[in-house]
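ligand=calcium ion
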Amino acid sequence: MAPTDPKNATAIILAAGEGTRMRSALPKVLHQVGHLPLIAHVMKAARAAGLDRPRLVLGHGGEAVEAELTKRGLAFDVAVQAERLGTGHAAMMVRDAGLIPDGPVMVLLGDAPLIRPELITGALSKLNDGADLVVVGFEAADPTGYGRLIVDGGRLQAIVEEKEADPAQKAVTLCNSGLMAFGPGVLEPLLAGLTNDNAKGEYYLTDAIALAGKKGFTVTYTLADEADLAGVNTKVELAEVEAEFQARRRTELMLAGVTMQAPDTVMLAHDTEIAPDVTLEPNIVFGPGVSIATGATIRAFSHLEGATVGEGAQIGPFARLRPGADIGTDAKVGNFSEVKKATLGEGAKVNHLSYVGDATVGAGANIGAGTITCNYDGTNKHETVIGEGAFIGSNSSLVAPVTIEDSAYVGSGSVITKDVPAGDLAIGRGRQVNLKGRAPKKG
Ligand code: UD1
Ligand code: CA
């Protein structure tokens, strides 16, 4: 057989599961781990292994899955399986849609997001060694429910499903992960031979193994770690897989030089980018789309999503960075401050209790405690521009659209509705009157 470059292989991802045990209106494979749908994790691993444009078998809720993955810029083809008649039937739907490629095929499961790319390349490399069909097996802590690998004299003879297994077969702990690699031209003739005369009345893809032996194909298996194969069927398993995903991402980041004072309390997203020599204090939540430059410190109890944090910046404690927050080098966002769709220049400070939204804040500007950019008039959002070195006194309201030019100074408690020219002092508040001896007597 011609050598198999994984780059010529195509993934078939089985994802027509009903997911009823999730007790959710959302299709199972769209539930997220690290803010990425389960099936997108599988697609990402397949792409990292060099496989292109996967074939997805979708059933109930398939349109929602297609829409979500397209929105995320992923490329794929879809075979619809209207009735869930088994894993073999799912592969038949790919065939009927004319989507079985000429090259090798890797069958993956859409609800098992922890799969590593090496596991895929490892199985495909066995095709290079002369195998026609490779099953990815694992030693199960508890084999109940899995198909068992029946190995005789070192050769994989068959996979027997739990429902068909006799007591001796049930005692086997070497199980089928559901992942299989097929050499070029191997899958189609095997599909043609599958029947549904079994306990479940389903077309089992696993019957292809015994069939392949009969047809003279070379069948073998590889071993993977059970932890990499975990599938999600309930919200409990979703949480377990999330925990494992988080643990892996934290370890990767710490090994890459990120300091985490209490790693178990930091929640990351699939795309969180954190440079070496960033310090994360305890209890930080990263939504998607965050990137942190070296030397920055994210202090305790901060929540960040869609934000960029520059070198040496300090965020928190108790800060919230929302999408479009772009915090400059050495800038500071302190406790109970919220920044949305706003750029803070180098060394700018928003230290206490502020809302800065739809704004540009110049380098070295100081935003006093309790300052609010009033960006929304009930219909439209408006911009606030604050110049370099400007000083906004505490408890000011900046009613957008408004510009405070470089080095301008706003007196505390001001309501600013007009632009403030560079270098000017603006005071927009009622004047204080002191009434001699008129303090009310106590008691
Ligand atoms: C399957 C395997 C079993 C293996 C186990 C690993 C078969 C017959 N059995 O069992 O050997 O140990 O996975 O988890 O293959 N799917 C479809 N359409 C269908 C049926 C399933 O797309 O008609 C998809 C599901 O969405 C899922 C995958 O195939 O991603 C496995 O289906 P599932 O019902 O979980 O198979 P098991 O009975 O657990
Ligand atoms: Ca299953």
